[in-house]
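Researcher: Quick sanity check before group meeting.
Model: Go ahead. Protein one:
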Amino acid sequence: MAETVAVETPDLPLSSTSTVDDGRFVPGTVLGERYRIMSLLGRGGMGEVYRATDLKLSQQVALKFLPESMARDPKTLDRFHNEVRIARQVSHPSVCRVYDIGELNGHPFLSMEYVDGEDLGSLLRRIGRLPSDKATEMARKLCAGLAAAHDKGVLHRDLKPANVMINSRGQVVITDFGLAALASEVRAGDVRSGTPQYMAPEQLAGSEVTTRSDLYSLGLVLYEMFTGRRAFDANSLEELRRMQEKSSPASPSTVVRDMDPAAERVILRCLQADPKDRPASALAVAAALPGGDPLAAALAAGEMPSPELVAASGETEGLNRGVALACLVAAFTGLLCTMALAGKLSLLDRIPFETRPEVLAAVARETLGNLGYTDRPFDSASGFRYMRDYLRHLQATDSSPKHRERLASGTPPVVYFWYRESPQHLEATNFFGEGGNASGVVAPMDPRPDLSGMAYVALGPRGRLQRLQVTPPQFEATPGRAMPLDWPVLFAAAGLDATRFRSAEPQWTPPFVCDRREAWVETAAGASGVPLRIEAAAWRGRPVYFEVIYPWTRPQRQERFQPTFSERAGHIIVVFLMWSAMLGACLLARRNVKRGRGDRRGAFRLAIFALLTNLLSWLFKASHVPTLGELRNFLMALNWSLFLAACLWLLYLALEPSVRQRWPKTLISWSRLLAGHFRDPLLGRDLLFGTLFGISMLLLTDLGQFITERYGALPNTPRLDLLTSPWAFAGGLLNALLASAGYSLLLFFLIFVLRALLRRQWLVALACAGMFTGIRLLNSQNFALDLALTPLIAVGIFAILIRYGLVTLVSGLFVFDLLSSAPVTGNFDEWYSAYGLAAAAIIAALAVFGFKASLAGRPLLHGDFLDS
């Protein structure tokens, strides 16, 4: 097979210093009544370039004509048109502008920016090498121009000193996009187009050409700029291949004594044979160059830095080993402390909660069987719930530490296990579930228990019956009559002594039809000291309703819980702030999109993350059934996920451009995360710091809780829905991650608005502390604790966000949310301890990942220490 031959473009400098005596057009010739030829700038195999005056616009331009022998060649004409099409997509001061293409008497030409200066190749031949500071300055400008091309998906494919111009003002301009192509349009047979001496190994081999191939060419150009020599001085194509494959170029410091180590490192990284080992982008090369901060330079020039420039700015070397190790040790120490405190603060560790859910489900089924409901259920569901009315009663009436003894006795139960069974599939009809946070999950009253044969059983943690509800038959072919019932069976299931109760007039209406109602009240206070009332009903000799009524039990079908004034005020303020933020985000996002300012790629990736995360959470948590109801729930989940994705998209587009213009350093690691640089050292640092921040917030909260519990505060209440199954735990984990991102963006938006209004950071910190504390106190269950801790946490969030950015805040809130909601316990004998350990393991893994990434590939210990 014949070897593909590389196409080498001629050196056609658009320079006033290049003179050629003969040309197709003599000076003074007017072309097309518009262009007056001034001089011939250069001639090569691909045509002639003239300096001309645009008589219509009164400005200097360069005109490039194809050779007469190629003017009719379709392939050459196609490449000529492609040069204009590609080059016009890139607009940057360091990229030569191409204006238009035309034809004059059968001679195709293109008009472009005239650069009054000299090409880099001739300059290096004339002076040898550039001074280090000048080379660094020009290298940074060269990187900026190349990055602008790559940002539009354009590969130059022929970057070399002859195609880099330096004008009279010292501005670097990349020229000659004759071989440029869109990365998505490069064909396999067109990989090796370019100048062989400046091709990357993979391009020279014909395997691929990517943006990192251009970075290899960039490294070769930088090598010549700093040393005055070529990195590979080969006499033939085969020799060049051998040199690239079997040897590395000589270190620039061996050629130039005073070579800056940072410049040498980045040049050698560009010249790595494996594209994966090269820098991620041209902006990353600029950021690694010595003595400069491209982000600060852009801000000083009044320019809005691009998202790519933000991502390429900041630290690239990673954390100091000692600092990273100290943070990791602190994170693990704090994690162990939270687990030790969890056993002293968690409500689950204060009550009898030793029975596994599958055992309680078996007890519930056995109870139904003992009552005559022996048919095997077609479908069932179960879970845990808190007795919220009991907790409110304790909070309102018992401020002494004595309630610990009542909780430890398990009577009355503060947690109950619910079990549902049905002769058909249980299909959740309320997508948001009871309380608005259970996506498509079967709940105690969802679906409604209106199907004959549906049964609901509520048990205390020790398996004692608290409530029974069975839907009687809708139709009976041979109506029966009321039968006597052995009520003591129900008392035994509830763990109650029937002899301690006397009959009373029924007061609570059963939810179904019945032919017999009974009620009993306790004649003397039982072990719990709480007077009990029992209500029951039966149909055709079988119980259809039984409930243990406590003094705090509310008739929920008759009256709903009424929030207090402070709770209503808190809800109104939160809703007002959220709606105001979303309305403001819509207006700002619309303006930014119109002006083309937003990071649309980052916003799109964030929206996709929100969409997929919420859909996966629904997939893990929801109750799935093989019916059309599953399609309905999927469409609801998709709609809700799209809504959340749209909200994050709006918030990000509204916020990101202004933050990038004013405080871009808060977005550096975030931009790298959205770009997919998951092992970036700065990202690792911020993840490690965020983990430590989240653990610190939880420790501070736990210590406050530990103190206030001594004065009667109730214990912490972990989320019980996470205990349903490992799948439910995974869904809750994804929910925590998505919520952390959403809350962080909302907080960032609020802080950004406050900074724009108040200007001074200390005023913003005070405003944040006052606002968060006021909202928290309106719904406070522990006034003293919230008054003391909320300002500290608010100021901490503000400081973390301003100092380290969005990634640190998101990871910190995620760690705090996961550890505070998961059933973390210090007693590993409990059946639910595995879920707490899983949460702790995830946090530990996040800290370890951040620690390893923050070291930037360096070993933890120095080599000399290991050698000793």
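Researcher: Fine. The other one?
Model: Protein two, sequence then structure:
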Amino acid sequence: MTTADLQSTSSFDESASRQTWQQLRDRLRPGQQRLADWHGGSLAVSAVPGAGKSTGMAIATAILLAKRHIVRQQINAGQAISPEDAWLEAFTPQRQLVLVTFTRSAAANLKLKIRQYLRELSIPATGFAVYTLHGLALSIANRHPDLSGLDLDQSTLVSPNQSHRLLKTSVEQWISGHPQLYQTLLEGQQFDGEETERLRRQSVLRTEVLPELAQTVIREAKSSGLSAQALAELSQTATQVNTGEWRDYNVLAIAAGLYEQYEILLRQRSFIDYDDMILAALRVLENETAKHLWRSQIFAVFEDEAQDSSPLQTRLIEQLAADPDDPALPLNLIRVGDPNQAINSTFTPADPIFFREFCEDCAAQGQLAEMDQAGRSTFSVIQAANRMLNWVNQQAQTPRGRSPHHPELSTPVLPFRFQQIQPVSPNDPQPDANPTPEGAGVEIHRPTDTYQTVEWIARRMGAIAQANPDVRAAILVRENRQGRFITDLLRRPGRHGVTTNLEDYGLGILDVGERDRQSHIPEEMLMILQFLDRPHSPDYLKAMLKVLSDRRLIPSQDLNRLTSAPEQFLYPSPLADDATDPDPVADQARRFCTGLLRARLELPPYQVIPFLALALQYEQSELATADKLAERLSRQMQMGVSIDGLISALTELVNSENFDPVDTEEDAEARYTRPGQVTIITMHKAKGLDWDVVFLPFLHESVIPGKVWLPPQTQFLGEFNLAEVARAQIRAHLHGESRIPDNLTAWQQASVLKRNEEFRLLYVAMTRAKRLLWMSAAQRAPFTWSKPDNLQEQSPCPVLAALQPPPS
């Protein structure tokens, strides 16, 4: 306890504290007050966007700690405890209130808020602890290394780059150990034995299909508590139905083999991943003595962003929230979240259905609170979000994708929980709650094409900034390539009909995706240098071509076709097929590659990285980052720069992931919402942020809701994606389905899952706006944003029609 804490304790005024906490409670909205009034047991809190989840949790925590402080003082003074406070006797000084959230920044912010409210209450900042879920698990595992089997002195947390290499090695070892299964995949639905096609399929399986399957399944299964052995046993129960159209693959059996190889490699190299931390903590809690110890130290658990929890993480929290002496008693557990903002379930194990089920269980016991009032947005934006939610749910109630084999598997799961956003009351303490709209508050447009879209955004933004120079604005995009397209046009006005210059209005432009691209520069340089060192390696050639394709330096194409025979691609003979039937798209890629190889021979090694930065057409900040990288590598190689030395140094740098790009901006989320700035950011990254004005361009049906994409190069396997099939089959098991769906049914279910999540993502994007929500779908737009100039007629996202006001 600090000196300040001792002083606050000695000068504690119970009456003043009660008055202060009542004032804090009065500042809360009805749903938030349910948090502050909690008196044990399980409580689910379902909150709408902008409802103030973290503020409600922080004030509720401070009030609970103030009540505990008073009770402890009464006990120490020998005074009687009031009946309504008797339950707090169990909240002894040896026990803590544990709060968990998902990111370190969120944990730090929550801790700061709690301390602030405790100061207002003159209460010591003790009796609580804030963790990330993985941080909490690591604390438990570290304290009992003999039980957890986790020794951080001997183990290393696997980095993303190391994980990718492990997945690649797992695939190679699985292929070596399962030649018959691999041959079945190689033959696909039909195969004529042609050698070029065989090489192409090998490339697709080794570098795309099997690594994706391994990554998806390991993440899904491990985060759900399924071991490789359990997955293999589940694969034996999977009912595979031969429809006569597609050859069946036991996808879970293949996935279990890849998972097993990955786990073997982790153990051999003394690596652990994030799920290993949770599993290690759960192993500790299997021991009765250790479990009683931890439960005796924790009074209750409060969880934020509960919609993003995996089954394994939920199991850990529930273990800790149980009573140490009578586990049959209700859990002291509050879970706060918004299932309608679950936007990670198609690429992480987080599944909103689990939090929904927790809400339903609590509702049956009268322990569900709804934070449905939000002061962030103007009323017209709230109406639009509610209308969108209702329309999507109504559409989803029409059955889709019913399985002809297992109709019991196809019960529709609604994309949204029925929960309407309500404006706050007139006396709400939030300043400028439900602000006055900018114009109509919601505007929907249909520009001629994507170029006119950007021009209209610039014009509207300029008019707003002229009246309010300090406006906070953002353009939210579905993918980074859209953001780069918008940034290029706004920074180079006058091109393609975009004449409005935002700088004339004093507006800055921040493209959040630029920093991500800069952080990848060491990895890009490593990929190209590996190709220059071994140009006849199919893997190095493909990796390098992908860099060029992602940077739009060569057209998008099937890279497997080019890399199946590197020598023939790079230096075709007069008898090659291309000699009689030239392919201009492949020729462009070939010329770029041979040009790099020629420069490798002509330039001294110390000039290679600056040359590559120019060849890749890096922008100014990227060039500065490349210069910083080259200077660092030169200092590191004191004996002289060589290609081998550069590759070795870059490999070490990429593996350590400790190279920061050149960035003059402050590294804080506040820079995304700076006044007088237009922030270009993806919808996913915008979650948790808000702006006065939000633009949502390029809302086409092909993008939202879109479809589960099946790359043409993988279609020899059938009309489904193995990774998505496996994900749907595992989730069917986790959701308690009586039978595992066949491949085609699982693929249909994966399509529904994607559609639901895309609509939730749009809902999140819409609710970022305070005063103006500007939405558009151009009449002509790219079919794929890897080719932004290839415009075609595109249908708008169906939500836009539902949001249009009815005809008068």
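Researcher: One line on it for the slide.
Model: The CA atoms of residues 780 and 793 lie 4 Å apart.
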